[in-house]
């Protein structure tokens, strides 16, 4: 299982990365990746964001959290919204589908 430490340029993630790597080694949790790339986040099994006080407000934290969680729904182990050979970029009209609202 891969863990993505999402980098929003909010501070030094080196210490967090080292702590997560140590934990992952001790419990066999898989690789730890520091990234700001939505494609890498989409493939991760776990997502770690900076602490909520690093964001402008609580609403911004949760908006970011839900945004990053949505990336992960394309992974085949979850909703599988994207095929393995898909070339659609996140945010492209072909990477999402319409939702009916009544």
How would you explain this protein's 3D organization?
This protein has helices at residues 14-27, 38-43, 58-71; strands at residues 3-6, 32-35, 46-48. The protein has 102 residues and is an alpha/beta fold. It has a three-stranded parallel beta sheet with strand order 2-1-3. β1, α1 and β2 form a beta-alpha-beta unit. The longest helix has 14 residues, at 14-27. It is flat and about 35 Å long.
Overall outline: flat
Q: Roughly what is the average pLDDT, rounded to an integer?
A: 77
Number of strands: 3
If you compute it from the alpha carbons, what radius of gyration comes out, rounded to the nearest whole angstrom? 15 Å
Number of domains: 1
Helix content: 25-40%
Q: Which structural class do the helices and strands define?
A: alpha/beta
The termini sit apart by 38 Å
Low-pLDDT stretches: 95-102
Please sum up the structure shown:
By secondary structure, the protein is α/β, with parallel strands linked by helices.
SSE order and pairing:
Layout: E1 3-6, H1 14-27, E2 32-35, H2 38-43, E3 46-48, H3 58-71
Parallel strand pairs: 1-2, 1-3
Features:
102 residues; alpha/beta; three-stranded parallel sheet; 11% strand; flat; disordered C terminus
């Amino acid at each position: 299982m891969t863990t993505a430490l999402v980098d929003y340029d909010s501070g030094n993630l080196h210490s967090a990365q080292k702590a997560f790597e140590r934990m992952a080694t001790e419990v066999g949790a898989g690789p730890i990746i520091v990234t700001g790339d939505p494609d890498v986040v989409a493939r991760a099994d776990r997502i770690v964001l900076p602490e909520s006080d690093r964001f402008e407000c609580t609403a911004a934290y949760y908006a970011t959290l839900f945004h990053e969680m949505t990336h992960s729904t394309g992974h085949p182990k979850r909703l599988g919204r994207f095929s393995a050979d898909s070339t659609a970029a996140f945010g492209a009209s072909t990477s999402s589908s319409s939702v009916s609202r009544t």
